[in-house]
Amino acid sequence: MLADIVLQAMIDYDNYEKAVLVSGDSDFYSLVKYLRKNDKLKLVLAPNLESSSFLLRKEAKEKFYCIEELKKKLAL
């Protein structure tokens, strides 16, 4: 399943302007790195900070968002 998502992202690479990845899984690190390097990464949205990969957060940089944190901000 994971390999299918990465493969499809690359097959469709020329058919989208920006990618949004909803995952905190470190297995997407290389895809995020490639998309960010080529200005194709809109954002990475992870369910929560605790279960998201540090490596993925580090690579996504300012494009990393956590659903849990966004819920807190929106509740204000």
Molecular structure report:
The chain is an alpha/beta fold and 76 residues long. The protein has a single domain (2-74), classed as 5'-nuclease (Rossmann fold, 3-Layer(aba) Sandwich), CATH 3.40.50. It is 45% helix and 17% strand. It is built from four helices and three strands, in the order αβαβαβα. The protein has helices at residues 2-11, 29-37, 54-60, 67-74; strands at residues 19-22, 41-46, 64-66. It has a three-stranded parallel beta sheet with strand order 1-2-3. Helix 2 (29-37) packs parallel to helix 3.
Helix/strand class: alpha/beta
What distance lies between the first and last C-alpha atoms, to the nearest angstrom? 37 Å
Assign an overall shape.
globular
CATH architecture: 3-Layer(aba) Sandwich
Features:
76 residues; alpha/beta; Rossmann fold; three-stranded parallel sheet; 45% helix; globular
Summarize the structure.
With 76 residues, the protein is of the alpha/beta class.
What is the secondary structure topology, with strand pairs?
Layout: H1 2-11, E1 19-22, H2 29-37, E2 41-46, H3 54-60, E3 64-66, H4 67-74
Parallel strand pairs: 1-2, 2-3
